[in-house]
Amino acid sequence: MSLKRKLEGEVEIRESAADVLHDILSSKPHHVSHAASHFIQAVDLHEGDHGKVGCTTVWNYTLVPTVDEEKKYVRYRVIEGDLLDEYKTLTGEFHVIPKDEKTSIGTWTLKYEKQHPGIPEPTELLDSWLASTKDLDDHHHGIKK
Q1: Closest of 120, 119, 123, 87 to residue 9, by C-alpha
Q2: pLDDT tens digits, residue range 55-114?
Q3: Which residue of 61, 69, 78, 130 is 20 to 30 Å from 122, comparing CA positions?
């Protein structure tokens, strides 16, 4: 029985925030803590330059991003932290897909391999990333909660 899994979720965002969200998640992740401080308290650059393949960014977990500007795609790979106590591997992929003139869809895909069958699916993590994406959209449009 394979313990490799994939979990997907999406959230509708305003089209005017699509480029901004991609830009923040790919090259300015330290701005995430301003809009979604309830989930991300700080984002620190550990090595390299934000937005460059191979840089190391610490978000209470250590993530290594892959960025495709043209496709508005960012992939983070967890390389250390407590998530790896439960998952052998874990990546989070964010992609912005235009829906119409006013909205886009921000999709998060988690790909992971559990350490053993008793480990729960990371649905709370996916829900938190989706909520943070919506928070970034609202923050960009000046909507305070």
Answers
A1: 123
A2: 888 876 567 788 998 999 999 998 888 899 999 999 999 999 999 999 999 999 999 999
A3: 69
